[in-house]
Structures
1.
Amino acid sequence: MDTLLSLPNGASPALSHFSDVSRASTPTRLDDVSHEKSSVTSSQVPNPRQPFRWNILHALSTRIYPPSSSKPSAVLGLSTSLPTAIVANGLLCVGKTDGMTHVFDFRQHLRCTCGNETSGTSTGAVTALALSHDHTFLAVGHAQGHIYLYDLARHQVPARTVPPTTMSAVASGKKEGHLAGSSITHLSFIGARHTALVSADKSGLAFYHSLGKVLFIEASDVLRILGRYPDEIHATAARHTSGATTPVIRSRSTILSMSALPLGPAAHPTEAYNLIAILTPVKLIVVGLRPSPRTWFRHHRDVDSSEKNPSLYAGCLAWFPSFADSKHTEGRTLQERPQASSRPVLAYSWGNTVILMRVDEIGKVTFEQVGNWSADGDIVAIIWLNQMQLLVFTSEGVDVIDVQKMISIERTAIPSEYVIANRWAPDPQAAISTPSHLRAGSLLTWTDHILMFIKQGDFLSAIDLCRSYLTGEATGNKAGLPEDADTLRQVVGQKMSELMVASASFAFSEDRMHDSTHDAPDGRGVDRTWLFEKMVSTCAEACLTLGDNDFLFNDLYERYQDMGIDGIYLAQLEPFVLDGRIRTIPPHISQRLIAVHEENEQYGRAEALIWHIDPLSLDINQAIHLCRDQQLCDALVYVYTNCLKDYVTPIVDLLLLIHEIRLLQAGGTYQFNVSHMDLETMMTHAYKVYAYLGDVLTGVEYPSNGQMDEDDATNAKRMVYAFLFFGRTSPGESGHLVVTVDDDGLEISYPYLRMLLSFDAEAFLHTLDLAFEDSYLNDDGQGVNRQLIINVLLDIAHLHDLQPEDATFVRIFIARNAPKYPQFVRVTPSTYDRLLLELASDPDVGTREDRQLASEYLLSAYTPHDGDRLVDVFERAGFYRILRSIYSQERKWLSLLSTYLRDEDLPREELFASLDKTIIRTAKACNGVLPDELRQMILESIPRLLHSSIYETAVLVDNHLQSDHARVLEAMPPRSYQQFAYLRYLLEPNLLEGIDDDHIPRKRRLEHVDSTARHLYVELLCEYDAGGIIRAINALPSGFLNLQEIIQTCNERGLYDIEIWSLNREGRPSKALDRLEVVMAQQANALADLAESGPEELENGIQVDKYVSQLRATTAMGLRICQERGQHPSTAGLHIEEMWFRLLYSEVNIVQLVSTAISPKAASIGNIPEENHSSLLESLRALVQETLVKLISTPTSRSTSLSFPALFARLVDSVSATHHASTYSEFRTILTGMLSHYRSEADTLGIVGQLVGQDLFSAVEEKTRYRRRGWPAKAGNCDFCGRPLHPPEPKTRAGTMQASIANGHANGAAAPVDEPGRGPDDVVIGLGGLVYHKRCFEVLRRNTPH
């Protein structure tokens, strides 16, 4: 049985192994627990989705737990000792603090008590227990290091005793064993022997004990398996410390878990090796005792954490032995066991990860890792439920793991104070204790989950659970479910059917309908509608899963009908019908289902139901009557086609509707019963005829879009084709005669076909286009084939009563489809010629593309005899694509070029590429000279080309018409942006926006641009990109642009900064500043005059912006001169301070002039608001502030040659003297604004600094984390020998570098990484990413000079 245990001070213990079907067992230690109170509560009705059912063992609990009061205990002589260890497997054995062990059966009867209080005083509390595989012997380990072996048939005296030894005896070599005071932590029987044990203690020592007798005297053989003895000081300290208070010394040699491979129900060769698994915080060791002791497996844990980390000491293991089918193992003795069909599996965990290892024997013992799984917290115990499921316990709860998929299939919470012991048995059960009692639990099977729902009265949830088991949708544990699909369906399906019958009987029983569940305390009753609604949907889902709806439509519906609540049943059934999951319904139910919606005037829902129900389930008279009365076209079509197999009557009914529409459009009155519909509704229904024809003629059901049966599809096509192409009026099955006559009252030919064409020819021909591809038309014996259809359409196309646009669509259809099927369709050449002429002669521009495409189809299969005449027709029709094909074949390059230029629909990329290609071909045909006609043709089309793309036009002209740039520019509007973009592409193409790098010419051919075009480019630069004039002068070759003409042009447009820049460029900065002062003075006077002219002129934003913009450009040029000359004072010709002074003086002078011009007028008039001129002054002051900021930030301002205070004082004095007024207030305003600007920038920089700092920290932290991951190997093979690698877990890059430096490999050569390997295939990873086998690296290092 799977055992869980908790004591009053329950904390998670260090765990030993579980026992398998061999029924060997190992105890749980309960002495290392914290003092916390348990808060376990029991529930009488467990949650059906919980994996376990728990029951309190009252009789057993009263014996192992002391009473709550100490006085009654003393009077009655009851023990006050507490349980410390438990083992539950066949028997329930509980060890206690008084040193005694009580053995119970699972009926809670005391079988025996091993030990006594006298011996318990000297040996200490019980700390470990183990049961033999046959449950006849019990091994008990104590806190002082004693081990006793009891024969449960003679339990009064131990059958064998293993006393502790002393350090002196060990040192003398006389004796091996556990030291006195070292408590036993793990015990396990080996194989089938009763006297062969393995044990481990707290100090990390593990021993094998062979407890024999020689001449009735005990002669035990002890072999140390693992661990080292402590030194004399620690041994002395241990001897003087009582076992109950011996501190737990945790180290990396602590044994976290130990277990011997138990015997399984089937024999396996690995059992002969007596394997023992031992788990420590840093390694897993599997030792074999036979034929001679040796280590078969060793795996080291990659431990980088501190020893104080509690996860380091979280570890446990559990074996699952070999097994075979139960039918081969039942009733067999140990010697009669069959050969196993599986291999033993070892599950072990470190921290939060559990790993599975499969063990096999092929000449030697082999181990293979088969999976792993990680929990949310540290794992404290693992228990095998069966070969497919593993329980994993953490402090948060327990997970049931599917070992094949290595996923958690169920999770449940268990209080953290429970202590878990690893146990396993064929009947998965568990025991758990709380502060006052012990609980026994069992893993719930699928039937248990269902029964729990039933006990709670929730039949519907039980049915849903059964259905989920059948469909495989059920989550969680599925213990007990048959694996065979047929058996599963039989067993679970029968259970689900019984549950449906029981739930209906319970819900509709007389007692149930009148019991207290339908009564409310206030006497109003309780609404149970939800219960009856849920029952229908639940039973419907269940019946669909079973594939049998008899219960749903017979028993269940009758119950609802008898109780008068069949409306609930029908409402819940309807979604299943509309989803298509239920189509076959008894006619009386379908009749009632449709009638309900008819009574409620929900005709749309009734229509949807009709065409979702199987035809054989419908009441046809009811459906037809409803559909005709309410014009439910889709449902009516479904009834006729699927119930009556009549595919013509739906067309007749819809043609009647078209006839009514045409009468109404002509001003007539209704002839049939459609007066309740408006014209828009009638049009919507009438257009359904085309959808219906498209489906029927392609073998698709309407309106469900399902595929028709082959025979039905053939019959439907035959009937519809015969009706459409019969040639005269025909009555339908409904008896209505759709009469189609001309104006003289004479019947017309093909009336229905022409009616469909006249209503919407394009829609009908699209339908016929789809049907034309159907193989049904291949058979001439069907009566209607492609040839007949083409012939009929040709006849109709030439009738005068057909509208021209309809006739055009018919011709397009014939031209597109007739050439596709030459083996089925024969058309005379004269007919093809006439078709081409008619398609090209149609003046409708809207259909030109469709007509051209149809003509191309026709020409692909037919070559006309009179091609020249057709070319003229195609020219008039604008069939440029066809013309290009003709002219290209005939090498008529001029005509071909003309088609490209005239085709307005040609994409831009194709247009210019085709023009370029055609021009090249033409030049090649004319010995490299372009004909004048071609040149003239292109020049006349320049507006059309410019509209498509200016830069593509520039490329085309520059490549082929280099001398005609002037004519191209003349074709554009004067001084337009088109001219600017055209010239910019020729001179500075890299500056144009929206042009890919591939379209930028690698080499500019500037010689093609004459002087007039160059001058025009400068003028356009002044208008569209004034800031780019200097860049153009520098970028273009020297002398390409006339600098004096540029200066003159710029001055005429107020761009004086170009002249100032030119003077400075010539090495005359003083002249440049002189010109700057003159320009700024002129601009200042202009602004002053504008300000004095009154608010009307001042509000003229265009003039103000113009002058301010000119001032800003001039000031920027002055700043540029001061900064450039300041870096090279020797070239300035002026003192640096003088240059800055002149610039600042000119700027402040402007502010003073404008301020003086504005203020007196404002004072005298008194009605000019300040906001009219404040923005102007702020703009001018901003220029001064910007200059001062540049001055302060310039390196020359901190040199001895430039003193900012002296400069500022000189500036104030000069301005005051010039304007004869105090200017301190003006300077104060300027400086205050500048300081505010600095404060704003400081705040912004502070915020940006914090954001950047945070981002930088995160980026560095992430890079550091990546760097610590290490350098992976470049390949999975050794870089020396080329054979595959089996590398261990990679070390961090930091660790690899440290190892490299420590071994003297600082130059980047490969250094060995100290990792545990797997025999000869240890791996070495170098800093360069190269990876070697360790032995290969040693060879390489010896052969490589350092």
2.
Amino acid sequence: MELTTLGGNIKSSLRKHGSSYHEDDDELQLQWSAIEKLPTFKRLRTSLFDVSDQNEDGSSRNESEGKKVTDVTKLIGVERHLFIEKLIKNIENDNLRLLQKLRERIDRVNVKLPTVEVRYKNLFVESECEIVHGKPLPTLWNSLMSSFSVFKKLIPSKSLAAKISILKDVSGIIKPSRNHSSLIEGFGCRLTLLLGPPSSGKTTLLLALAGKLDHTLKVSGEISYNGYRLDEFVPQKTAAYISQYDLHIPEMTVRETIDFSARCQGAGSRADMIMEVIRKEKEAGIAPDPDVDTYMKAIAVEGQKRNLQTDYVLKILGLDICAETTVGSALSRGISGGQKKRLTTGEMIVGPQKAFFMDEISTGLDSSTTFQIVTCLQQLVHITDVTALVSLLQPAPETFDLFDDIILMAEGKIVYHGPRSNVLQYFEDCGFRCPERKGIADFLQEVISKKDQAQYWRHNDIPYSYVSVDQFSQMFKESYLGKRLDEELSKPYDRSQCHKNALSFSKHALSKWELFQACMSRELLLMKRNSFVYVFKTAQLAITAIITMTVFIRTQMKLDLMHANFMMGSLYYAIVRLMTNGVAELSLTVTRLPVVYRQRSFLLYSAWAYSLPASILKIPLSLAEALIWTALTYYVIGYSPEIERFFCQFFLLFALHLASTSMCRLFASTFQTMVIATTVGSLALVLMFLFGGFILPRCISLNEFLAPRWQKAIAENTTIGRYTLTSHGLNFESYFYWISVAALIGFMSLFDLGFILALTYLKPPKMSRAIISKERFSQLQGKEDEESNRPVFPHTKSERMVLPFEQLTMAFKDVRYFVDTPPAMRKQGFNEKKLQLLHDITGAFRPGILTALMGVSGAGKTTLMDVLSGRKTGGIIQGEIRVGGYPKVQKTFARISGYCEQTDTHSPQITVEESVKFSAWLRLSPEIDSETKARFVEEVIETIELDDIKASLVGIPGQSGLSTEQRKRLTIAVELVSNPSIIFMDEPTSGLDARAAAIVMRAVKNVVRTGRTTVCTIHQPSIDVFEAFDELLLMKAGGRIIYSGMLGRHSSKLIEYFQGISGVPQIKANYNPATWMLEVTSASTEAELGLDFAKIYLKSPLYQETIELVNRLSEPQPGSKELRFPTRYPQSSMEQYLACLWKQHLSYWRSPEYNMARFVFMIFAALLFGAVVWQKGKEINKEEDLFVILGSMYIAVIFLGVNYCSTVLPYVATERTVLYREKFAGMYSPWAYSFAQVTIEIPYIMLHAIIYVAITYPAIGYYWSAYKVFCGISPHILRIDVAVNAFAGSRTRVYCLEGNYPDRWTTNAVVVNFKVNY
């Protein structure tokens, strides 16, 4: 494109009405000449920018006044947004045009872009597993035995460890350029797709290439970038790994998350490149496109708090509509799962890296959104010479065609690595053919599966025999593609060809001061977002201070020995209260650690850059809390009235609170898990109160009792103050106050330094222990022999068990749903109080018919399903919903329906089989006998193909246990086993590969054949999956229906309907109807054609047929009865209690971290108390001895109770979302769940009490008698700890689980405050 033509087009769109081309040209030339005269630094930040007319409300008009010379670093948010909107209106076309303009400008002056070629050769990755007998579960017993393994190693014995190979001799090249013509003329890079079934090693390969493998794995082989080994440069800054797990700070908005990442990643080589381009343009007398110049300069400036690149990434990923929405979490409202996935991608591609390794970036996205994102990625790779390797689970055919190369993996080996265009011919040569209307990606993943391979055998005259993965791998190595790959790898990369900016050799892009500023501004933002926590803590402290000052009110205080002891107690309580008020900092820090470790691994910032702001910004809070306590209590209680002593006490409590919060941060970063951190924190508090001479005795007591008013003589050379101090062993001089304050400040500094060191050098907690049973290991060892020798038999379908159920229809008419308008929308001018998400939705679901609920992201699919199933507890629902012809009653409906959530929520310490059994136990009718239930559970497990993993723990997503697709299948099994009449499935194939999706859909079809009413939302179905549905309900953005009816054979009725609308493009041969449907009904297509598909549908015969069907199904069938059950829950209260108790028992027994931490704390505390007050019970000769005994009892009761209350909270918080799901399903009452949790605590607490008394009773020297020992166990431990645990279990847990407290650290503060006050 000629520059004059391009400039003319831009100027014609920007000039004011009536202006001439020549005037605009002259003005632009003058402005550009002025820019060229600027110094280099200013010239890099100055460009010509549009001056737009704006309305009074700030909105922009269509016309503009022209261009002005602008500093690109000072663009405000509205200007950045309008600029990107102007550049990119249609994402796919305009993004391509923008990137082409960028490349044309760079090529015009002959500037070379840095490129990265990634090579890996003979790569092996192995993991060491511990072999155990029986089930490989981390039970309390297994963990106890494992802790003694160090002693076993001293004794010569046969090793119980085994090595499992993850990657096996893989080799390949990820190229940044191609030797032949490109898809986009003039440029050439290769976009590579990584395919493979679950557990094939895809994620391990991506992590290995990005230099992010766990150091505990054994790695051999070679990995190089442009000929440099990974240890010769910084791969984390050169390449970006985009994880399949979405870890973000819930309180930040989407824009803030990407802005922070862009700020920390810096501009990389962009500044050097634009400087060279500007210099050469000036020499050649070339004037650049003003918009391209503005964009390139704006993204080349480092350290900006708000970056234009963020607006660009938000636009191309479709996140601009939720840019100001907080990310949210499982317990707080935020963006959707698909938007979180795009945010994870955007957080990394906003940086300047030249290589991207993307792991399953399309999970939760509809096919049109995935196609749009991959299209933009393809344009980025082809034009800007970026290297990209992308792993996708279910790429649609049109998305698959965007890739240039394919890597197919299975069982840790590469089966194919070569051009996409050659892959079908290659497998035909191997004997397998892809049928028509079959997606190539689905074919590739199924052809290497033993269960699906036979259907693709292309030879009729040659008998089929199973081709194993090893055989496929060997065939590839012997093929011409494999030999060519070996030949290329044998030639070393010429390092002299490596661009100077291709690789990064420094860890951080910004200076230390800029990193500190970035982290400081983020921490301040998070404190504002968590202001409720800090306000709550402060209010809690103020209320406690008011209670305290009324207890020790000065009108009842006298200057005598008895009231001096009261005064001493009030001082002691003040210290206890201020120290424990910092415990919430521990929970807050532990919660953020996963995000901090993730961002630290990407080298966004150093540990100190995060730690210092976290410490500095808490100083004002400590100051405020110390001031509130001192101001409220000091003069009301009646401490010494001298103002200097008031400030001395205030300064002491301030330093104490700072030291306490610093200590909590240290423990959180050192021990990394909530249970261990809270346990160690409680132990540290015990130690400080027992041995903290610099805190209580020598500091706050001296400040009060050395005051003039306590100098009244009561005996020769003795005053009341001195006598009180002496009787408590605190007879020190006044200067010890300053020694104590200095010690507190020293502790605070030491703790903060430890916090920095812990985050710097400690590794993140391991995802899980690698455990395998001996039987399973033997199976893996013999697997290859079995597969090669075992004959293949055709699959025979056995008769399935069908439990009796009642077939039911669901009809709904004019359903509307309203929520409160978000404040952000009101600020943007939306004046309605209520926001309508669903508009007059009418339809019906029938037995034996599988219905798909589809639409673009944000169309309201999940919202509609939640409304129909009764899962929406907020907002306003209008319209009519009928089940079986009768109005829907939610309590009854929960008994006969199942709901498979999009987020797979299960108890982590339960196995797959136990999860299914638990659901069957509580949800199947009590009339069904146990044997029938057991058989039904086995059949469901077999149907969903969970046999191989039924003994595996579910685990925590992203940390341990099952993979994403295994969790999805478990979710379906848990609902299927309840034998529902109506079942809802929210994206049942999301996160699954093609074969797993086919397995799930086969299972769903089996369910439908039994006569159940089944509805599924689905995002990006393949042709096979989409055409497995019978009916479709299609929605557009805004919650309106645009199609409702039968699909027809090969989607003929759907295609006929939309092709009958004038202007809608025809579907291509063998094109996915689901993708075509979403494309032709998109908002951009509607705007382009001037159509409203919702209005067209309302005037169509389809709508009239739907109305007739709904009216017919809204009337009860003759002889039918309204569904009623004698009880709310399927099982009796006792049965619910026993089932919950069974589940809690398994969870507790398999939570060694939780139980071992409590046991260790209790034993250590018992030994500590016994040693400190050794035999004091037999030597009570003076008042001080009695105080020592009473003090040890008080500290034991307080801190053992605090520890029990604090450590149980993380466990309960983990189960919180599980309770929500099971409560909605109507499995049990909250009381059964609460009593089961309290009951399961009793044996553990009882054992703790017995051991504690067995250690401390003889050590302290209490009086021996059976009665007193029993009293020591029962009232001293059980009365306090079990009572408080019962409170924390049945009350606080229920409150927490019911959502009264929005976060874990607030709940923790409540529990600790209760225990201390108690």
